[in-house]
Amino acid sequence: MLRNCLTALALSFAIATPAAAAPATPPAAKDQGDRYMGDTHKTRSDVLGVNGMAATSQPLATQIALDILKAGGSAADAAIAANAALGLMEPTGNGIGGDLFAIVWDPKSERLHGLNASGRAPYGQTLEQLRAASARAGDENDIPDWGWRSVTVPGTVSGWGMLHETFGKLPMAQLLAPTIAYAEDGFPVSELIAWYWRRSMTNFANLTEQGIVEEGENWRQLFLREGKGPDEGTIFRNPDLGRTLRIIAAEGTDSFYKGTLADAMAAYFERIGAPHRKEDFERHTSDWVEPVSVNYRGFDVWELPPNGQGIAALQILNLLEGYDLAAMGRDSDEFWHIFVEAKKLAFADRAKYYADPAFTETPVEWLLSDAYADERRKLIGAAAAPSVEAGRLPGDVEAADTIYLTVADKDGMMVSLIQSNYRGMGSGLVADDGAGNTLGFMFQDRGAQFSLDAAHPNAYAPGKRPFHTIIPAFMTKDGKPLMSFGLMGGAMQPQGHAQIVVNMVDFGMGPQSAGDAARFHHVQDDEPTGNARMTDGGLIEIESGVPLHVVRALETRGHRVEYTTGPFGGYQGIWKDPDTGVYFGASEMRKDGQAAGY
Fold first, then answer.
1. Phi and psi of 480, rounded to 5°?
2. Where does the signal sequence lie (predicted)?
3. Is residue 164 domain-resident?
4. Is there a contact between 406 and 597 (Cβ–Cβ < 8 Å)?
5. How does pLDDT run across 552-592, given as a tens digit for each residue?
6. Dist CA 598 CA 52 (whole Å)
7. What is the domain extent for residue 80?
C-alpha cells in the first residue's frame, strides 16, 4: 500500500578501502529466505503505529523512547532519552563526549527547526601551535585522528538542553532515569556493537603504546572487562556514566559546561598537556539554524547548512533530477554510473567550500541553485571521471563513527537526530574526577577534520567548528511533513541520503525497502582537510545485491569497483502517511537496531 502511495505521489509531481588489483569478484550466494510479498530484497515489514514511533540502532534505546512517549513526553523528550541510552549502550558510535545535530518538525508552528550542537576548538591554541603539536605526533600537515589534538568541546549535552527547553514536556531527570538505571544495573551488549567495541580496544591499545593517545589508564578502566571488550550478550555496567548523568539530571545541562564536570574535564586536559581549559567549556553555545532544501521531483528534501556536509546530498539530487532514473532502472550500469559521477561533483565542492560559517561564507544558495546544477551536469560523461575540480562560483578566482535515531509523537512532532564521537569510537581520552573514577564517556576526535592549511576555508582556528560529517535529514511535500530519516557513516552520509530519496521517489519503495536495497559507497575523493586528492576516479564499494553484470559494465566505463561489507552506513526512518497520519517505521538491517510504535 505504501509503495503504491509513493509511486502515485512521484508520478503526480516521482574509511577508504584500498582498490582491488583485479576486477570485482562476485559475491557468494546468500542463505536467505524469501518474502511472500513486497520487494524481494526487503528484510522485514515496515513497523506501523499511530500514537508514536521510534527507530534507533539499539532495541533497548527504542523501547526507552516509546516509554517516554507513553508517559506523555514529546518526540524531543524521547529522542533525548534514546540518545542518552545509546551513549551508554553503543559507545562505539556516540556519547556525551561528542556532537549532535537535529531537525525537528514542530506541529505547532508547522515548520522545521534545525539544531547545530557541534563544539569548537580550544580558544588558547593557535594554528601554529597545533601544527607544531601535530609535527611532534608525526606530521605537521595532518592532525592525528586520536589523542588530544583531535578533541573539540563536546556539544551533545548543550544540544539536549536546547531541545528540551524548546520542545520538552517531561523533566530532564525523568528522561535520563532509564539510562542511569541501565548504567548501574547493566545491559546486554548486542552483536555488532560488541564487534566494534572489541576492535576499538585493540586499536586504542596500539595507539596508546605509540603515544598517540596520551593517557590510556582511563579508557582501559572504563571499557575493558577482564582485559578485553565485551562479547555479545555480556552484561555491561558503567556506574561512572550513571554518576555523570545524575549530576546533569539534578543540576541541568549547563552543569556539564560550567560546574564540577567542567572542572574535572579541564583538570584532566591540563594534566595530559592539552590546551583545553574550563573557559572553552564555559564559552560553548549550540545554535538554532535554518534548514535548507531542494525540490526533487515534487518532494522537498531538507538538510542543515555547513559546517556539516548535508548540502552535498542536496547537490547530488539536483544533478540527478536531470535524468530519468526510473527509466534506467536500478539494475543498469547507466544508473549507477550517473549517480557516482554526480556524487564526485558534489564532493569536489564539499572539499573546497564547506566550513564553519562563522569564519568563512559558504555559498550555499549558489551551490543549491538549478543554474549551478545545470552547469555541473554537463561534466558527466559516459566514462568515469578520474578527477573532478570544484565548481567556480561567481567572482571565484583560481588559487567525519555515529548513531542516527528518529522519533515521532501523537501530536505530529518528528525529530531527526544524529550524534557521534567520530572516528573509531572517539579520541581514546576519558576524563576522570581525580578520585579514581572516570566520568564514564570518551571525548570525540572531530577536530581531526580541520585543515592545517591556513588558506583553506576549513583551516583550524581557535574557537572554530570543524567540518562535520554527521547530518540529519527530512522530507516534506506542500509544506507538510512526510519523512524524518538519516543514514550515518562518515562520507557515506550524503550519498546514502540521496540513495534513500531516489529509492523512494524514483523507484516507489517504502521506508524499510529503501533502506534494505543494495547501496554503493564511493571513496577516495578530495578531502575537506586538504590532504587527499582524487586522481584515478576513486573506488566504488558495493554490496552483493548489485548484479555482477552491472559491475562489469561499470568497469568497462573506467570505474574501479569492489564488492565489500561494512562501509554502507546505518539508516533509520519514519514516514508519515499524508492521508491517514499513520507512521511507518524502518530500521537498518545492517545494524543492531529496531523500529517500534504503538
1. -115, 145
2. 1-21
3. yes
4. no
5. 999 999 999 999 987 899 999 999 999 999 999 999 999 99
6. 6
7. 55-285+402-449
